[in-house]
Each structure stands twice: as C-alpha cells, then as structure tokens.
Amino acid sequence: MRDLSCAKWSHVTRTVSDRQGCRLGGLAAPTRLGDLVVAQVTKVGGHERLEDTYGRRVRLHNGDLLVGACGNRYATDSYEGYHRPGPRAHLLTVGGVIGMAVSWHASCPAPTEVEVLGALTGEDNRPLSLELFARPRPPLRAASAARPLAVSVLGSSMSSGKTTTAAGLIRGWTRSGLVAGAAKVTGSGSGKDRWSYLDAGAQHVVDFLDFGMASTLGYPADHLRSTMTAMLDALVQDGANVIVLEIADGLFQEETRLLTGSLPKVCHGVVLAVNDALAARAGVDLLQASGVTVLAVSGLVTMSPLAAREAAAATGLPVLSPAQLAGGAAVDLLATRPVPA
Description:
- The protein has two domains: 8-133, no CATH class; 150-333, Rossmann fold (3-Layer(aba) Sandwich), CATH 3.40.50.
- The longest helix has 18 residues, at 221-238.
- It is built from eight helices and 16 strands.
- Helix content is 26%, strand content 24%.
- It has helices spanning 162-175, 192-200, 221-238, 254-260, 263-266, 277-289, 305-315, 322-333; strands at residues 8-9, 23-24, 36-43, 49-51, 57-59, 65-70, 79-82, 88-91, 97-104, 113-121, 150-155, 180-184, 204-207, 242-250, 269-273, 294-298.
C-alpha cells in the first residue's frame, strides 16, 4: 500500500474530510468527472507549483505524489483539456484538476505531465468522488418566495476583469452595511477567485467545488442551472442579503451561453466586464437579445478613461471601474435599470 503521508493535496481536495483514512486504490472502473485520484509527477512543465488547500503554492518536483480530481478545462489564454480515463494525464490547473491537455496558448509551456497511479479510496477501499463531500442542497424555494437580490458578473472573454469587478461590487455593498455573499458558478478548480471575494469583504462564499465538481465543463446544462440556483439559495440560507454570481470565461463559452438564458429568473441584472468598447457593444447586444438586463459595463476597459468613454458611447450604459463600484456605485446599481443600447 502506497504511503500518502507525503502526498501534496491540491485545492480541489479542500472538501475532503478525514484524509488520514484515505488510501491509494486501484483504477478498476473507468474514472468519471469529479473522481479523486492519486498521481505522480513525471515531468514538471507549465504548472511548476500546486495550490494546496490553504492557498499556498507548493513547488512540484519530478516524482512527487499529488492528490487531485478528474476534470476538464476551457481556457483560451491557457490550457484546453479533457478527462480521458487512463494512466497518462496532465495537470490542467494549479488547483489540481487532472485531464489530458489537447491545446494551449502559444505563450504557455507544455503542461506538467503526471501518471495516475490509482483512485483515492476510503478505509472501505471504495473510490472517492467530490460528489460524496458536496454540500447538501437547500430545499427548493416556493414559487411565491421573494427572489434573492443578486447581480451576475459576466465577461466578454477570459481575463476581462470579471473577478476584480465582482470584488468591487462586494466591497461597495459591504461598506454600505450589507451582508455580501459570492458564488463562483462555473470554471476550473482554483482558490484564487474565492479568496478575492473574501478579501473584498464577502461574509459567505460558495463555488462549484462545494457542490461536488472540480471543474464545470462537461456537466449537463440542467445540472449547472440547478447548481446555480442552489448556490444562490445556500448563500441566502447562510445569511447573505445581497449576492454576486460570477460566471467564468467569455460569452461564447458553451456553459456561459447555456446559463445566460436563465439569468433573468435568478438575478437583478448583469455587470459585463470587457477589454474594449467593441467588446462592450457586442456583449451588451448579445445579452439584451437573450432578454438579460445589463446594468453596467466594467472590467479592464475602465483602465483607460478614453476607452471607457468609447464604451459608454457605444452602449448607452454606465461604465464603472471596480474602484467606483467599491466607492458606492455598487449600491446604486441595485435600484437602477439600464438605458437601452
């Protein structure tokens, strides 16, 4: 039996209880999304470090044992990868998602290679999955129940400033005395966004890992929709009275596109993070065509006053920097509706 006392436990294992009772088992059955596995680093590549459950980035060496979870990744500025049952795999995220990379951005080195040694099992030798450690879903709200006050943050693309925008909303609400909650609805396992919410003042935070997924790519649309609603209800149950829902990647990403149509039923409106005025106009047009209320534009475009003025002229919407949201505009958005583009 392989000793796991020196294994490096990744961020996606943060919900796993009783690590001392875990063992390395065989891979008798094909692994599924969310299954926990033990792997050995065979060649350090793009991810030289592994994010542990406390947020520290631990340096990786060839021969290291790590505990991660099977999953997919969709990142236009990093790695594209998918779960492929078998011993050969890659480390797709710093947070411990394991799959096979099929493409990556030209600026990225080849991914870190690992060999999957077996399943992580409990003392009963049964393979463990993140689903076993998922938070119980709150009871369904009655149709007559008041809808929680929530704002969604979407982006025109990856790296458009979504998380910084979400943090600005949280900071603005918290400074006004509201109890802010935050949810990372989709994405690939890493703690960076979660900690950004907490640092901004969110008192309650959930993400897809809390609901049994190491990454969300590959799960059925109905599952993602119901999980988004469960996240919202869980934050209300925890005590939040205003909530930000961040949906990862860009508007053309499949999960984002599938969830966009459900947003009018679950949130007050959307703040769209973009890089430039053209993306602002195109993104607002796409969202409004889907019946989504766009409250404001934010993101990297606000780093340039000139670009921000272009975006405002192109969309007819307020263009608010994260600092402006934190300074009071976040509260004002809760009572506003957009001007048609």
